[in-house]
């Protein structure tokens, strides 16, 4: 048990350090590719950090030998968006609240493009409603609809890449960590740092999840409770840490773009894979997960649609994950 705890804490520390290198590298990567400032977080960072979780779904649904193994992939496809829509946004609120004095700000206003984030929530909600609806019905050509989710993500990426917004003046691009003395490092160094950090994040995340599952076994927790409640939190840890790092630097715009973009990845790519390889039928916990996620998105859309969001207003959305966790614990323990 001591070894499990050491690996658990050690892997979490490695993920944090690797995320420091990743967020630094991906900002430089976006500049080198001349991407819009927000597209750097919503496309590059989001796709990179969501890739390991999508790989978990792919392996589970494509190579799982039993229905239970494939169900893990379906659970991951639903659990990821739930964690991002609740805990990840709450992390941004807590981080900004705690760093207000450090950032020398007189208020807790989140400095972002509110209209853009409200539009992202609308996109996600529309796709998510279709995704959940398909989990409630049975018909012959359902697997073919997985292509529509891939197409939806393609349209989202195309829209984001066309954006030419610029970073606010107060957002300073820090030197590349691998080449701190160079004012304009070569693209090969930027790519090396970003890819290497992503590989470390993926490996450390897998170790973190496996140790979390081992802790669940040691504590005699129901397997479904670990799979539906704890594992999704662990797999979305990189996005939460990225958000924490960017908020500490006063770059909540990038933090929220990363979360919003990762939600779009999780709403489309894992879902399409699961539709291709499984019946995509929901039981009670998955239906509740969908309902809680939709509630969180509607609340976030309302916040950003108003045009003024304070950090403390993001905290309540994190409590919705506790509601889901309570339901799952009650459902499987009776």
Label this structure with key terms:
334 residues; mainly alpha; 0% strand; globular
Can you give a write-up of this model?
This protein has 334 residues and is mainly α. Helix content is 76%, strand content 0%. The chain has 11 helices and no strands. Helix 2 packs antiparallel against helix 3, helix 5 packs antiparallel against helix 9 and helix 7 packs antiparallel against helix 11. The longest helix has 32 residues. It is globular. The model has no long low-confidence stretch (mean pLDDT 85).
As a whole number of angstroms, the C-alpha radius of gyration is 19 Å
Tell me the span between the first and last alpha carbons. Answer: 28 Å
Quaternary structure classification: single chain
Structural class: mainly alpha
Strand content: under 5%
- Given the structure, what is the number of helices? 11
Number of strands: 0
Element order, helices and strands? HHHHHHHHHHH
Biggest pleated-sheet summary: none
Tell me the helix content: over 70%
- Would you tell me the overall average pLDDT? 85
Unreliable stretches, pLDDT < 50, 5 or more residues? Answer: none
C-alpha geometry: globular
């Amino acid at each position: 048990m001591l070894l499990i705890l050491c690996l658990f804490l050690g892997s979490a520390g490695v993920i944090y350090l690797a995320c420091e290198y990743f967020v630094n590298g991906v900002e430089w990567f976006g500049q080198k590719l001349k991407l819009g400032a927000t597209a750097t977080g919503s496309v590059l960072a989001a796709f990179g950090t969501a890739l390991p979780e999508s790989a978990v779904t792919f392996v589970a649904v494509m190579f799982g030998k039993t229905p239970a193994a494939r169900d893990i992939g379906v659970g991951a496809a639903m659990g990821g968006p739930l964690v991002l829509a609740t805990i990840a946004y709450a992390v941004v609120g807590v981080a900004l609240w705690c760093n207000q004095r450090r950032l020398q700000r007189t208020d807790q206003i989140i400095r972002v493009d509110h209209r853009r984030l409200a539009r992202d929530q609308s996109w996600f909600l529309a796709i998510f409603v279709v995704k959940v609806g398909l989990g409630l019905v049975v018909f012959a050509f359902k697997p073919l609809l997985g292509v529509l989710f891939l197409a939806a993500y393609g349209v989202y990426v195309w829209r984001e890449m066309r954006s030419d917004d610029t970073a606010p003046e107060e957002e300073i691009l820090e030197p590349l960590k691998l080449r701190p003395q160079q004012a304009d490092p070569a693209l090969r160094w930027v790519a090396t740092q970003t890819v290497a950090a992503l590989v470390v994040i993926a490996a450390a995340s897998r170790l973190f999840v496996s140790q979390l599952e081992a802790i669940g076994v040691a504590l005699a927790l129901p397997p479904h409770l670990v799979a539906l409640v704890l594992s999704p939190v662990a797999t979305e840890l990189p996005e939460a840490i990225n958000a924490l790092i960017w908020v500490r630097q006063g770059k909540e715009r990038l933090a929220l773009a990363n979360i919003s973009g990762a939600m779009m990845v999780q709403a489309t790519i894992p879902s399409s894979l699961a539709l291709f390889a499984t019946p995509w039928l929901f039981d009670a916990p998955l239906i509740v997960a969908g309902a809680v996620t939709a509630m969180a998105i509607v609340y976030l859309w309302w916040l950003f649609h108003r045009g003024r969001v304070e950090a403390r207003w993001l905290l309540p959305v994190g409590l919705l994950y506790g509601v889901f966790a309570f339901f799952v614990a009650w459902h499987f323990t009776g």
